[in-house]
Amino acid sequence: MTPRECPSCALDAPADAEVCPFCGYEFPTPRAGTRSVTWLMILLMVLFAIPLLAWLFG
Ligand SMILES: [Zn+2]
């Protein structure tokens, strides 16, 4: 993960920081995007788990 530049103080804040550690600027968090990625991961896990279970019990 690359650090993101704070638009308020122009310093590099950690990529996962919700608030700038230097000036306290609150980064807008893309909740919807994060959620869709989470669902994609769950979907992929299910898609991999079904054939695995079929193979284990088949
Ligand atoms: Zn800042």
Layout of helices and strands, plus pairs?
Blueprint: E1 4-5, E2 12-13, H1 31-57
The structure holds zinc ion.
Task: Looking at this protein, list some descriptive labels.
58 residues, mainly alpha, binds zinc ion, 47% helix, 2 strands, rod-shaped, two-stranded antiparallel sheet
Describe this structure in words.
The protein is mainly α and 58 residues long. The chain has one domain (4-57). The chain has one helix at 31-57, and strands at 4-5, 12-13. A two-stranded antiparallel ribbon has the order 1-2. The radius of gyration is 19 Å and the shape is rod-shaped. The mean pLDDT is 89. Bound molecules: zinc ion.
Given helix and strand content, the structural type is mainly alpha
Average residue-wise pLDDT = 89
Number of domains: 1
Number of helices: 1
Strand order of the largest sheet: 1-2
**Largest β-sheet summary:** 2 strands, antiparallel
- What would you report as the Rg, rounded to the nearest angstrom? 19 Å
Provide the list of bound ligands, each named once: zinc ion
User: Rough shape?
Assistant: rod-shaped
- In N-to-C order, the SSE pattern is EEH
| Percent in helix | 40-55%
Q: Give the terminus-to-terminus CA distance.
A: 41 Å
Which residue ranges are poorly predicted, with pLDDT under 50 across at least 5 consecutive positions?
Answer: none
Beta content comes to 5-15%
Number of strands: 2
